[in-house]
Amino acid sequence: MTSNLQKVDATKTSLRIPDSSSTHSAESSEKPSDSRLTAPARVIASASTGSIPTPRPQDRWRQRYARRIWFTDLLALIWVIYGTQIYWFGLGNAEIAMREDHRLSDLSYWFFSALLIVAWMWVLSLIDSRSDRVIGSGNTEYLRIVDASVRLFGIIAIFAFLLRVDVARGFLLISLPVGVLVLILERWLWRQWLISKRQSGQYSARVLLVGSESSVAHLARELQRTPSAGYRVVGACVPSGKIASTIEGTDIPIMGNVNAVDRAILATGADTVAVTSTDELPPDKVKQISWGLEAGKQHLVLAPSIIDIAGPRIHTRPVAGLPLIHVETPRFNRGQRVAKRTMDLTASILISPVLAFLAISVRLSSEGPVFFRQTRVGLGGKEFSMIKFRSMVVNAEELLAELEKQQRDAGNEVLFKMKNDPRVTPIGGIMRKFSLDELHQLFNVIGGSMSLVGPRPPLPKEVERYADHVHRRFLVKPGITGLWQVSGRSTLSWEASVRLDLSYVENWSVVGDVAILAKTAKAALAPGETAH
């Protein structure tokens, strides 16, 4: 018996198997108690003792979503192409006429339509219109659909001319715009479904943040503020590497230091690594992280500490082997100004008949003038007289000082907004709810002091309290509507209002104006709780 025990002890010694009591003592002295750690952090803590974390299964939502889009794209194109064919030619066996001396036989439009559908689906795939990098937000997905469709029909027209094939022009002229509109509508519906899923944390990239604690916390808050963007933060690696804690102000667990990125990816199942700052990272660390990612399944994102700058102003240009990010300063050339002015005047003329009806309603509903004039600050910081339909009692300005004292907890230190303002007349309440009191500012638009879309025109007393950077909103004309109005209106804090206005100034475009006008029309028809 004694000899057998000695053999077992000798075997333990030769294999260096630690005794259970000594192992427990060592673990308790080297890492925090497991009860204090989140599940991913426990895996990282155990990995520090030499064990290998078990990889989490990859969520293949990208492939599932792309397959669904592919299928609905196909159904949409079948409906459009064959529907157009039946509308143009009827149910008969129409054929494409070949010109004389052509070696090809006549081609049935039923077969040509099938070829067109296959080619359309193919170019949509070639241009990556179903890529997870463009779905869910932004206009890139829609622009790629338009680009691929126009190129396809251009190629068809060129080949028809070279091969002397007479394809019915009406068939093509109807199929192209209708097909593009149906595809965009279908993708938009899918996007609404995707956004609803992302609100609950599904169908989103699992992001591991790497950088200093302050930069990680900043980016984490921004991503959590907009879950529809599709980035769900699952952990962070910071220089301190305090595994038992979370990032300050968030519930994001710290998965270790910047050298634990590989283990953190395995523990959290992250498919995206976002580097928030490089100040505290070792040299070549970003390159090492990129080398450790699985091609096609895991992505590296560099997040510069600059926000609210749109893609057209950002360009990456390699200089001396360095991928330098160039941020262009906001520029408004003559063509852009002419386009914006043309859109302002055209829309003003179309909407102007509504003004007469509103003027009569205001005049008959309460005593006082129809119009209300107020001094506002516009382009270049110059004051102008803004015209609105009167929606308040005549002595509204006299009552303002007392009401301002009552609004201390609204979260907006500069703008005065009250949900149930007693100064508003009954017809004024209806006009405000549907933003009809703003329509008479079309006279300001026609006169050139305002635009349809732009920053909110502030009062002079508000401008006196502006910080220096807020004055950048005066680089463009103020607008009847803007980002602030379609993004929360009266519920926004002062910081959020300023951020939206400056974002518009920095990234203005005609396409953006059209999108804001569309959202304004939707908000006017269904105003919700933010309109008052």
From TrEMBL:
**Pfam families given for it?**
Bac_transf, CoA_binding_3
| Keyword check for Nuclease | no
Q: Per UniProt, what is the membrane topology? A: Multi-pass membrane protein
Return the Polar residues bias intervals: 1-14
Region annotation (Disordered) maps to: 1-38
Q: Which GO terms describe its molecular function?
A: phosphotransferase activity, for other substituted phosphate groups
> What are the residue boundaries of the Bacterial sugar transferase domain, all occurrences included?
340-525
Q: What are the entry keywords?
A: Coiled coil, Membrane, Transferase, Transmembrane, Transmembrane helix
Residue ranges annotated as coiled coil are: 386-413
Question: Which Gene Ontology cellular component terms are annotated?
Answer: membrane
Q: Which family does it belong to?
A: Belongs to the bacterial sugar transferase family.
Mind telling me what this protein is named? Answer: Exopolysaccharide biosynthesis polyprenyl glycosylphosphotransferase
Q: What organism is this sequence from?
A: Microbacterium marinum
Q: What is the lineage of its organism?
A: Bacteria, Bacillati, Actinomycetota, Actinomycetes, Micrococcales
